[in-house]
Amino acid sequence: MTLTETIENYLSHIPYPTQPEGLYEPIGYVLSMGGKRLRPTLLLLSYSLFKDDIDTALPLAIGLETYHNHTLLHDDLMDNADVRRGKPTVHKKWDANTAVLSGDAMLIMAFRHFIEARCEGKEQILELFANTALEICEGQQYDVNFERRTDVTESEYMEMIRLKTSVLLACAAKAGALAAGASPEDAGTLYRFAEKMGLAFQVQDDWLDVYGDPKVFGKKIGGDILCGKKTYLLINALNRADAAEKQRLLALLADGDMPAAEKIAAVTQIYDALGISPLTLQTIDNLYKEALAALDALSLPAERVAPLRQYAGSLLGRKS
Amino acid sequence: MTLTETIENYLSHIPYPTQPEGLYEPIGYVLSMGGKRLRPTLLLLSYSLFKDDIDTALPLAIGLETYHNHTLLHDDLMDNADVRRGKPTVHKKWDANTAVLSGDAMLIMAFRHFIEARCEGKEQILELFANTALEICEGQQYDVNFERRTDVTESEYMEMIRLKTSVLLACAAKAGALAAGASPEDAGTLYRFAEKMGLAFQVQDDWLDVYGDPKVFGKKIGGDILCGKKTYLLINALNRADAAEKQRLLALLADGDMPAAEKIAAVTQIYDALGISPLTLQTIDNLYKEALAALDALSLPAERVAPLRQYAGSLLGRKS
Fold it and tell me: Mean of the pLDDT values across residues A203-231?
């Protein structure tokens, strides 16, 4: 089995209770929606750098995926998003209270998967996971705060996406290493690698929303522009624009009457004029290279690390 | 210091981060609201049956209190309650999204307190806590389900309040014992004691809502009647009533135009006619006696257990 198959297989065989249905049915719905299973895959890849019995690390991997889906469920409720992975979100299919309570239960289940794991470094992994989950709440709060601001700096933005996205990937990579009994140095190296990868991945997500191929991206283009989201692109456009351009960009984003396609085209034109696309691609490339360079510090033969490097490349659409 | 002072002192000295303010300020607000601190007190009393260094158990006690306040925060959001302990609830003072996210952070902090504790039986305590928290979600879901039903049986109701209220008290008593290295038998005994106490306490809460002295109860009388809550009293009234009385009771509860005082008086009159008050007091007394009787199985001298018996009595307003 591939790692993804192993994860899907384990996920689909968890003996969840069936009663009360109103609590557990939405959880099964969310966890069976699929997705890239990026966090559990990264955890297992990291574990398998040091040890081959990946079943030992599976409860941790599933805990991370359950936790990640808890954040999606509650974030969708807070954003009032209608659709996730082409299906109605939980608060749309059921209601807001169901989203709150089933989301809470998923957070508890995530901890329970971690608690039930029988692996090395358990205490440290539990601490890492709890601290990471709290950082992610902080990232979500900063993201909310940024909605009301037009003066977000690039470094504030990078810190927000580090908290909201990167630390969970970093936690996955480090927890996998600790569970396999890796040295603190190697575990720290993997944390730093995945932290940079997470930044690259998120900035790329921002870029794809404007410049991606909708067939490959899997979402409609321009969604972030339409909801005025403070992305890497918008923040840099606002910072690079002169006073007049900045006013025009903010007015465009605030215009509720302009047809969607027209607004996306107009904002993209400003991005193009300001050179935002090459700037963003350069940032992604720098972060990706920093991530790979971090891996050089691992106390492992290069061929052992090759699958992880390859996975990192595939996440960023690199053929290397 | 009394146990309550020890708990308040510890709670007020936790070094919470201050940023982002939108995440952490509501948490400080909720945790400083006071309350009986029933769960941490019970945990520490249980611990001190076996060991005197209660500081060792304080992180667990604070974890339980943080967890309990997380459930109040999210329950108030789901019930759309305006006031808690005489102050505006978090979703009223801030907004619904703040209540979701700060509530999530409190759940994570609760686990972190447990994880950080340096005591005996850690693994088992963590499992107990995670399982208990999930049972409480189930209890909350059953409570929601009961709102739409008029045929809830007494045993269904007792199981709901066991899940929603009792298991957390039982977890407190058992975790305190395990942390002090008590035998599985003694830990199990304390679980059963607190489980019965929790049932007695909740049924008494139902009784006080109708028959309590508002000066002592601290809440307005009749709140459950006005919101049509399925309490021990209402469920038994519906089960004891003949068809005509049942129709009248349901019509009364559904009447949105009747003045509050009139509705409370009319429902109370039906309860009186059906002998609901003595029935309820008998149930409370039976549960209280079963709880105390369970304690006889402890492998401890009676004088060591006296403070716990006394605390149980004080919770139910017994002078003994």
Answer: 88
